[in-house]
């Protein structure tokens, strides 16, 4: 059977886009007497550092052993846009590791910081490692003793497991702590080999026996909303409904809102 026809939706997408890229755009000599439009499969494979056979398997949807790095090189070779890269990774059944690094986009952070200030209720921003680059006055009041302190970088996991205020403030701390670790494991699954992730985890496991014990349990859980209760020294017991939103052009950033229950 003709292998151009024996493809998957992923293969159809790859083939369509390699036909749109000229040799000149890819930095290759145009050559003479080219019958195929765009780039040949062999040329794309060479640009990606893989064999033509391996690229054929990818086009057939056989992506079980394809690394995110290979998919990223393929996206570069095909000159894919941001949305097209996401689509490529989705078709291959993988998360785009670039998502986490988009959290450092200063424009995205500024936009979220402005949005946070307009929310009527505690609200804050989390990046891919759960550092908190922005929060509003209500969040500073709720997390008084943490967010209102001049720390170099505030991190939600550091607060939960290393700050003495957390077990007092967070209602049912053991359940919330277990869930947070499971959610964080799910979120960083595409960044297992990232040095920043490793440094954060090593530090937490070394400094907190609770975190180390929960991390070794291998629990994984999706991030969900629901009731969040706090036992505040000045406000008493307060509860909220948590809503988390991601920014479309920077999915590595999350806007967390605590709305009146």
From TrEMBL:
InterPro entries, per the entry: Cro/C1-type_HTH (IPR001387), Lambda_DNA-bd_dom_sf (IPR010982), MLTR_LBD (IPR041413)
Residue stretches making up the HTH cro/C1-type domain: 34-85
Pfam families: HTH_31, MLTR_LBD
PROSITE patterns: HTH_CROC1
Annotated spans, Disordered: 1-35
Protein name: Helix-turn-helix transcriptional regulator
Source organism per UniProt: Vogesella indigofera (Pseudomonas indigofera)
Lineage: Bacteria, Pseudomonadati, Pseudomonadota, Betaproteobacteria, Neisseriales
């Amino acid at each position: 059977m003709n292998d151009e026809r024996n493809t998957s939706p992923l293969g159809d997408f790859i083939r369509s886009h390699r036909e749109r890229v000229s040799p000149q755009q890819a930095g290759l000599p145009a050559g003479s007497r080219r019958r195929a439009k765009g780039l040949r499969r062999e040329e794309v494979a060479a640009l990606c550092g893989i064999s033509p056979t391996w690229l054929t398997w990818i086009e057939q949807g056989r992506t079980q052993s394809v690394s995110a790095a290979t998919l990223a090189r393929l996206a570069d070779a095909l000159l894919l846009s941001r949305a097209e890269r996401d689509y490529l990774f989705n078709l291959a059944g993988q998360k785009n590791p670039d998502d986490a690094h988009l959290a450092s986009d200063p424009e995205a952070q500024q936009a979220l910081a402005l949005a946070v200030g307009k929310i009527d209720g505690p609200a804050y921003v989390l990046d891919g490692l759960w550092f908190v680059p922005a929060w509003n006055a209500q969040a500073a009041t709720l997390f008084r003793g943490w967010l209102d302190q001049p720390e170099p970088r505030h991190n939600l996991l550091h607060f939960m497991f290393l700050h003495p205020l957390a077990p007092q403030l967070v209602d049912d701390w053991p359940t919330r702590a277990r869930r947070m670790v499971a959610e964080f494991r799910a979120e960083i699954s595409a960044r297992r080999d990232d040095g920043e992730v490793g440094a954060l985890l090593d530090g937490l496991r070394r400094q907190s026996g609770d975190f180390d014990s929960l991390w070794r349990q291998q629990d994984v859980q999706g991030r969900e909303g629901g009731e969040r209760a706090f036992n505040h020294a000045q406000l008493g017991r307060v509860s909220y409904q948590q809503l988390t939103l991601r920014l479309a052009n920077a999915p590595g950033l999350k806007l967390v809102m605590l709305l009146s229950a």
